[in-house]
Design brief:
This protein is α/β, with parallel strands linked by helices. Helix content is 40%, strand content 14%. It has helices spanning 19-31, 52-69, 87-100, 105-108, 120-129; strands spanning 6-11, 44-48, 73-78, 112-114.
């Protein structure tokens, strides 16, 4: 096991409360990867990048920074699908941006993409409580205190 592991999560939203960091933290706590130890020592770094296009534009540089940090650093991209049909369409947009910036396919494939389609509050509720009612929007969560 590595002495230092880190996950860098880039997401939409730069200032103020955002559901994205809450989701990222809840996801990793629920997933509880064995290799990510100890949990409370800066294992997750959240980095907001404004809107959707700003996030895509920042992706190649963030990926290079993570790759330069060593094999024990993983980049997670958290973005909403919104009007697209599925996550593959959005991943294709990230690949196009990465290609233009000179990122190799091999490096691109090291990134982890999480693309919730709808009602991220329900995803957070499921991860924190183990159940959710998808016919209603989950409760608003304002921070990572839970």
């Amino acid at each position: 096991m590595a002495k230092r592991t880190q996950i860098v999560c880039i997401h939409e939203g730069k200032k103020g409360p955002s559901i994205d960091p809450v989701f990222a933290s809840a996801f990793l706590k629920a997933y509880d990867p064995e290799w990510l130890r100890p949990w409370k020592t800066g294992a997750l770094r959240l980095n907001g990048h404004g809107g959707k296009s700003a996030l895509r534009e920042a992706f190649p540089q963030e990926l290079r920074l993570c790759n330069g940090a060593g094999a024990d650093t993983t980049l997670i991209v958290l973005a909403g699908i919104d009007d697209l049909v599925d996550g593959e369409q959005l991943k294709k947009k990230y690949w196009e941006t990465a290609q233009k910036a000179g990122v190799s396919r091999e490096l691109f494939e090291k990134a982890v993409f999480i693309f919730p389609k709808d009602r991220i509050e329900n995803w957070v509720q499921f991860l924190l409580e183990g159940a959710t009612d998808e016919s209603r929007e989950g409760p608003r969560v304002k921070d990572n205190a839970k």
